[in-house]
Amino acid sequence: MEPSHSGKAEHSSAGAVSPRLVLALATFFCMLAVSLSLYATQPAWWNSRGAVNPGATRNDYAMANEGQLKQFTQQAVKEMNANLPAFGAGNDLNSLVAGWIADYSANGYSAAHPKPSDFQAVNVGQVKYIGGIVWNQLLAAGYTSTLPSWLVVTSSDSQAANLGQLKTVFDFDLTYSSTGSTLPDWWLIHNFGSVLVDGTTVNPNADPSGDGMTNYQNYENGTDPILKDNPAVGLEVSTIVR
After folding, report:
1. Among the four residues 70, 78, 154, 199, which has the most C-beta atoms within 10 Å?
2. Is the CB of residue 30 less than 8 Å from the CB of residue 133?
3. Are 107 and 115 in contact (CB under 8 A)?
4. pLDDT for the residue 227
5. How far is Cα 157 from Cα 145, in angstroms, rounded to an integer?
């Protein structure tokens, strides 16, 4: 499938994108597509949010353009706002997308009147710039413990980026659970060190810290399930060892 140019409910937060403007931008972006991923599997949100076009011919070595980068970024922001509890996509990404949408609205760009620059090639450095914002937010939320090695500035940053490189930037899955749990794998690894604890799955309804908040409530609130985060109980280290 290909990133197209065009989502689960979004968290309400400062810098949230206007649904009306999102629709205006998506109407044009649906014309622009990216091909099927090189990876064996791809994040489910690529399809569900329309970031890729399942009808497009796979060609990850094709040149990526500005419109495709904007579209994938816009859909990634929706996914992060919806499924990265307490963090979302952050002000920088929300503001970036809101600015693009405002530009389209103010200048009357649409499928019938596309913005010419959206068909221009993007270079590796531009793709890395967006990737840096995305992955620093994922790092802050605990999705990853290190930034991708490809974020390092290199002499090739001025070269044209291809669709495979564009997809690499957005290759994250905030909802994947290898056990079918409502708690995603990344959150369990970040907080418990493993998807399984003592060989068993972590119960979303359990309260290991005894602060009155279940594991799932801690997930939704962006709080630590091992520490007592409930103000009524007091912030203390639990007897459970990570």
Report:
1. 70
2. no
3. yes
4. 83
5. 24
- Give CB contacts under 8 A, 24+ apart, made by 232-236: none
How confident is the model at residue 75, as a pLDDT?
98
Largest distance between two CA atoms of the chain: 62
- Whether the Cβ atoms of residue 41 and residue 77 lie closer than 8 Å to each other: no
Reference 188, options 204, 171, 172, 205; nearest CA is: 204
Rounded Cα gap, residues 11 and 174, in angstroms: 14
Q: pLDDT for 21-76, tens place per residue?
A: 333 344 344 334 344 444 458 999 999 999 998 888 889 999 999 999 999 999 99
What lies within 8 Å, CB to CB, of 70 at 6+ separation is 5, 25, 29, 97, 100, 118
190 close to 142: Cβ distance less than 8 angstroms:
yes
pLDDT at 8 over 70: no
Strands (E), 46-92: 52-53
Cα separation, 90 vs 201, in Å, equals 31
Query: What pTM was computed for the model?
Result: 0.79
